[in-house]
# Entry
Amino acid sequence: MNPIAFRALGSARQLDFLPQACLSLRLAQRICLRCVAACPIGALKLDNGSMALDERCMGCGRCVPACPSGALRARDFEFAPSVADDEIVLECWKAAPHAGQQNSIQVPCLGGISRLALLELVAAVQGRPVRLMDRGWCAGCAAGGGENHPAAAVVAEVWRLLEKLGVPLTWRPKIVSRPLPIRLMPDDIPDPLSQKSLSRRGFFSAFLSEAAATVASAAGGTGKVDAAPRTLSLAEIAGRETKRTTALILELAQRAGTEPSAALFPAVEIGAACCNHGICAAACPGGALRRYEDEATGGIMFDPTACLACGVCETICPEHAVRLLPEGNPEHTIHPIKLTQMSQYICSACGEKFADASETLICPDCTKKREITASLFGISFANR
# Structure
């Protein structure tokens, strides 16, 4: 399962793409186009069952935080804070040469910083202020994509999360306005190779040279390459960032002396129209939904800490019985819960055990087969 390296023509900028983790490609339908919508210049497209990146790509990385399943990874966004700095300053490459912040963490565009990366930074600096610079250039920058700061949504999300955890204000990242003259703004994001000479410390912009190392990292491994690497499941790829985010939430809650609420994680509700065919569980990329069976009942279980909030379950359910709550449900628990609990029956047609909300004697699979046969041949199965 090697990632495909997308390279914009005439540029050293590159994206790593794991097609096996792309929800639209894996499910063979345009079920998720968040990365396409996030690209400020429309350089990323999903056409004819494949992903395409054209030569206009600026390397801003804004598509990566938008991807819920970890299918995209931008290079030049790996950074580490200095242990000596009282204030942690994040700066875009365009502004870095003119900002006078010699020890800033520099990335191509602040809009390419993910929620996980920002949470990891907050946890690492342990209360030192984290400041994302607003130089007043975003509205006029092609990577900015509008008048709002490109990192505004991620900063607001992290702020709300830390607020719910009871983390002190000093731990919460902020966007700080310190304008620079617009005449100093370059037209393009500087080339990565020339930008390396501008970075003074703590910013790792070396390209990921081995595809196998990327896959090992996605699985949470050590980065070592096996002679015969196994095929990773979608849940392993998509769940890497979710598991790390959950670990950070629990760590920060412990530091703040609070109990993490289920409102910190997405929630899923399943209504009475559910037929228990399990399509939602089979399609769930992070493994948050799964089928269960015990002696008397069966149904769907949900683990909020594994949910990607991608909405696949809600979209794919034929009965529209599934509802995603991205903001979570404080009445739930952070532990796995049974969303549905249906009685178990033995199918009179095939003899297999199945769970259903109604007192039927035919399992959903056999019912579907009978419906297809009836429509093709006009056979009635009433009272059989």
